[in-house]
Amino acid sequence: MAVFPSKKFRSSSYNSTIPARYRAALARHPFALFGLPFIATMLLGSFFLTPATALRYERHDRKVRQLSKDEELGIGKDKRKIDMREEYYKLAAKDLDNWEQKRVKRLPGEPDGVL
Question: Which residue, of 3, 26, 38, 104, has the greatest Cβ tally within 10 A?
Fold first, then answer.
């Protein structure tokens, strides 16, 4: 069985090319030629992408704004204000002892009994 050499064959003209010199320098200084450019790319990318992400959230904030309590309830200038005491006295004036149970009409196809 043949034994394959661990070193790849490269021609003599390959040693003078830029990739060959980079590969040799990378073996001697791996962090300076690979790690440092990678970290620099990540940091610069973070700084350049920050305005883009800020713009995204600003557009979202323009669409979704916080409403006041009146706007949430749908009470405008033309509608009356609700007074809690007045509503309480209206409910207290109703006769809650005399009431009649009324059956709600079912939709077609809806089951009539209890589940």
Answer: 26
